[in-house]
């Protein structure tokens, strides 16, 4: 089939000059007393989130901060994320007082780059309020797979429509919508702001009283979502993707009477021009209805990754050490569940599964073993595999994350 690349056919041309403000009803303001309490609790966590062996202790400490949130604050976040707009902005979130310069490269930080990790603790605490577990994809951070991503402008990536890019408007998307372990929630927490960089959000709530609400057109086989170019390039370089290359869910679908989004306007193929035109109308609608906010220091944006899509505007960094810097965290409720394993989509057959067991990489109930762990944590080990061993490793990665690991 000759699929049509949507973005190539419909270039991104939206000016994004008149963006409505983020709704006040979805903003939670922490009190000065709460900010101080959470600061002290974060400073009391002795673990370092950028040391793999200390991450679980750090997460445990952050969950204690989450437990200290008031019942009213917890209810506010839950209501708006689950049944409401699908996005919450939290203001007054404590940040580190003694900050170094904005890193020149995003992804993980050196464990000694910062003296304290207040922002990281708050990111994990806010994630815990969703009832989901933090994780990340192995390919993020150029394959260094940090639990917490530091997002900063990178000059050589200025035209990239993703982390590190800045010299363009970025198309709307749901985070990793094609992936079998798509995040349920995404949290962005500001450390330093760029006043001209706005994060834009669209919610399925905005479909009310529009033609999309009553659309009965069957588009179930019109589209395919595809993996980002970075993930494809890394697979070609010997780092298996660990999921199918495509997902065939439509950009907009109904579930139990409500809408769910599977949006990536920069990574969707269309079956024909009718599908292209349909998707273009949807993108026009989303661009016209979006709201925006600057992720400032002490502000966190929590997003339900199923009922919202988001993006950012282009901006102009100065590269003077004070540029835009925020943290990004992914959270998933069924992180260690096999329910989204590719066992049902032909990722392996009985012979391959038997071979994986013989290698000691997997158990008969489909759990990866500690023997395979080195390939998860050390990409160079995977690159050394050749022939059938490389093929089997690529299949084994479909079973990540393994118990005790947060890498997919």
Describe the protein.
This protein is of the alpha+beta class and 408 residues long. It has two domains: 249 residues, Double-stranded beta-helix; 59 residues, no CATH class. It contains eleven helices and 17 strands. The strands form four sheets. Strands 3, 4, 5, 6, 7, 15 and 17 form a seven-stranded mixed sheet that branches. It has a four-stranded antiparallel sheet with strand order 1-13-9-10. A hairpin with a 2-residue loop joins strand 11 and strand 12. It is globular. The two termini are 30 Å apart.
Quick structural overview:
By secondary structure, this protein is an alpha+beta fold. The chain has helices at 6-9, 32-43, 55-67, 71-83, 118-128, 229-236, 273-289, 350-358, 373-377, 379-383, 387-396, and strands at 4-5, 20-21, 27-29, 87-91, 133-135, 149-151, 185-192, 199-203, 223-226, 246-247, 252-255, 258-261, 268-270, 291-293, 299-304, 308-312, 325-332. A hairpin with a 2-residue loop joins strand 11 (252-255) and strand 12 (258-261).
Q: Considering the protein shown, what is the CATH homologous superfamily of the largest domain? A: Clavaminate synthase-like
Give the helices and strands as they follow along the chain: EHEEHHHEHEEEEEHEEEEHEEEEHHHH
Give the total of domains: 2
Describe the largest sheet: 7 strands, mixed
Termini separation comes to 30 Å
* Count of individual beta strands: 17
Poorly predicted residue ranges: 339-346
Per-chain topology:
Blueprint: E1 4-5, H1 6-9, E2 20-21, E3 27-29, H2 32-43, H3 55-67, H4 71-83, E4 87-91, H5 118-128, E5 133-135, E6 149-151, E7 185-192, E8 199-203, E9 223-226, H6 229-236, E10 246-247, E11 252-255, E12 258-261, E13 268-270, H7 273-289, E14 291-293, E15 299-304, E16 308-312, E17 325-332, H8 350-358, H9 373-377, H10 379-383, H11 387-396
Parallel strand pairs: 2-14, 3-4
Antiparallel strand pairs: 1-13, 4-15, 5-17, 6-17, 7-15, 7-17, 8-14, 8-16, 9-10, 9-13, 11-12
Helix pairs in contact: 2-5, 3-5
């Amino acid at each position: 089939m000759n699929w049509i690349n949507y973005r190539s056919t419909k270039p991104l041309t939206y000016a994004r000059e008149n963006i409505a403000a983020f709704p006040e009803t979805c903003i939670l303001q922490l009190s000065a007393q709460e900010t101080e309490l959470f600061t002290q609790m974060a400073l009391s966590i002795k673990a370092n989130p950028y040391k793999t062996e200390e991450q679980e202790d750090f997460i445990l400490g952050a969950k204690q901060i989450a437990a200290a949130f008031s019942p009213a604050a917890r209810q506010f976040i839950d209501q708006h994320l689950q049944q409401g707009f699908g996005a919450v902005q939290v203001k007054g979130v404590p940040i580190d007082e003694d900050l170094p310069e904005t890193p020149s490269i995003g992804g993980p930080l050196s464990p000694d780059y910062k003296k304290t990790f207040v922002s990281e603790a708050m990111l994990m605490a806010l994630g815990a309020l969703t009832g989901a577990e933090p994780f990340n994809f192995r390919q993020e951070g150029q394959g260094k797979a940090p639990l917490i991503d530091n997002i900063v402008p990178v000059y050589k990536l200025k035209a990239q429509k993703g982390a590190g890019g800045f010299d363009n408007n970025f198309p709307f998307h749901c985070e990793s919508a094609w992936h079998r372990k798509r995040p349920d929630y995404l949290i962005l927490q500001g450390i330093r702001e760029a006043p001209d960089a706005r994060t834009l959000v669209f919610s399925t709530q905005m479909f009310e009283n529009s033609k999309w609400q009553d659309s009965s057109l069957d588009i179930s086989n019109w589209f395919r979502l595809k993996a980002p170019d970075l993930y494809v390039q890394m697979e070609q370089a010997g780092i298996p993707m660990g999921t199918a290359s495509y997902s065939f869910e439509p950009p907009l679908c109904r579930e139990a009477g409500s809408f769910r989004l599977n949006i990536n306007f920069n990574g969707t193929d269309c079956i024909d021009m009718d599908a292209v035109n349909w998707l273009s109308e949807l993108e026009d609608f989303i661009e016209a209805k979006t709201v925006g906010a600057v992720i400032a220091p002490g502000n966190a944006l929590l997003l339900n990754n199923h009922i919202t899509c988001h993006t950012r505007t282009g901006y102009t960094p100065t590269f003077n050490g004070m540029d835009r810097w925020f943290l990004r965290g992914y959270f998933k409720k069924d992180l260690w569940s096999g329910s989204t394993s590719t066992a049902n989509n032909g990722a392996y057959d009985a012979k391959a599964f038997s071979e994986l067991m013989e290698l000691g990489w997997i158990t008969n109930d489909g759990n990866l073993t500690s023997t395979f762990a080195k390939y998860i944590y050390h990409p160079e080990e995977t690159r050394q595999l050749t022939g059938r061993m490389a093929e089997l490793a690529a299949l084994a990665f479909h079973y990540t994350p393994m118990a005790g690991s947060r890498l997919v």
